[in-house]
Design brief:
Blueprint: H1 22-31, E1 36-39, E2 55-58, E3 65-69, E4 74-78, H2 83-91, E5 95-96, H3 109-115, H4 128-131, E6 132-138, E7 144-148, H5 160-164, E8 173-180, E9 182-183, E10 187-195, H6 199-207, E11 215-220, E12 226-233, H7 235-246, E13 250-254, H8 260-263, E14 270-275, H9 281-295, E15 300-304, E16 309-314, H10 318-331, E17 338-343, H11 353-362
Length: about 375
Amino acid sequence: MTELGTASTVPMEPAIVRPTTTAEVAEVLRTATASVRVMGNGRWLMGGGPFAAAAPLSVRAVAGVSAFSPGDLVLTAGAGTTLRELATVAGAEGQMLAVAPYGDDDATIGSVVATGGPAPLAFGDYTIRDLVLGLTVVTGTGDIIRVGGRVVKNVAGFDLVRLHTGAWGTLGIITEVTVRLHAIPAIDTIRCGVVDVPLATLVPRLLEQRAPLPMQLAWTGDTGPVLWARCSGNAARATALQAHVAAMGLRDMAAPADLSALRATPSEADVVRVQAARSDAIAVLDTLQVLLRAHAPTATMVWDPLRGSTRVVAPSLAAVMDELPARARTAGARQALLVIWEQGRRTVRPLSTVEARLKAAFDPRGLLNPQATPETFP
């Protein structure tokens, strides 16, 4: 197995270190004298951060399902196991992981947990944070820790599972994941239709939904909004949900043959998530449409009515995001917006006091996905 050298001897394009077990990951970190860039298949290294350049370490080979209890709907797998591989094993028992994050099925389960990324039209509106029960993590000191467990009801101690979910590998390298599964429903279809009613009429209807009916509004370029909904359950329930969606004022309602576009994320695009109060939805969506027409006419915008988040993808979003907060307030938004850059322009910021203390506790040498500084980040 390749070892990590000192910072002065790491070449410009170092070979990827590929440990095959948790113990090997721990040994690499115990003996490392240079920082590492943690990855799975390395398909979304431009997300998150900003991270400084470092020797790449892939956990793709730490893979395979190590435990599966269909009766308990619980599965444990190495972090390098892909979503496709996991789906094959779970699907043989009529079960599934309830989320399919942005990207594709070649993403590894470890990277899905580490990035904590959102998923479009997730079954039951779950997030990966809702489904992770336990983790095996190697800290920056090379210590192996196991957090959570292999049971659904596990509330003992501090919630270190959620601490590592979405931490981007900065606190430890995830090597094993235990997830909660769900039974594949008898009917599971995605319907979409063009919205014919004004946004001011449709948005309140969507905000009133109480049943677990995953929906989203999507705009692409200059086209009007399209409503997508995941209707699942037994035959009676799925039919009732489809009728409910159709009654919202849609035309050309259909079940699309290709759903890959829902999850695709171009590597060269800016991706921004805007979190806003659901009561401010109309003001924020109207403002975004105006700004995108002016600065990014080819943008794709998707609004999740349950969480009040809007995901925007475009070649460049800097000008839009610079103007958005003030323009949204002028349009009537009463609460502050949270703008999260998932990919694209990112600024180097100092860690908060809590972040710095956590980093010092789990990675005192700063080996794991080190944050860029103004001197190291272009």
